[in-house]
# Entry
Amino acid sequence: MSSKRSRNRNRIFIVGGLGIALVIAVFLSPFASTNPDGLDRVSGDLKFDTKESQNKPAHKLPFYAMFDEYALRGVPEQFAKPLAGLAGTLLTFGLAWGIGKLAVRRSSRRDETSQLE
# Structure
């Protein structure tokens, strides 16, 4: 009974956290600053932004055709950022979930083999 209760609590925590992250990504992303961030700001301050390569490695990535900075290409501007936030949040969650599942499986396999010895 305790294990089932624990799983239920974990499920509520995960679904609730994902829901909050999705609400933030969808509803607050349109209010993000338009000022340059991180390396863009530093490269502009140090005046080496004009030396960037014309054949950028990022343009060769598979998702480049879908995303334009922090927005989706081909989508009306008012929906582009929220949809990009939604897609990015779900992608990040999916990757983290998958890595977590793999880690738990490997951990449980190690425990089983150590008990057999």
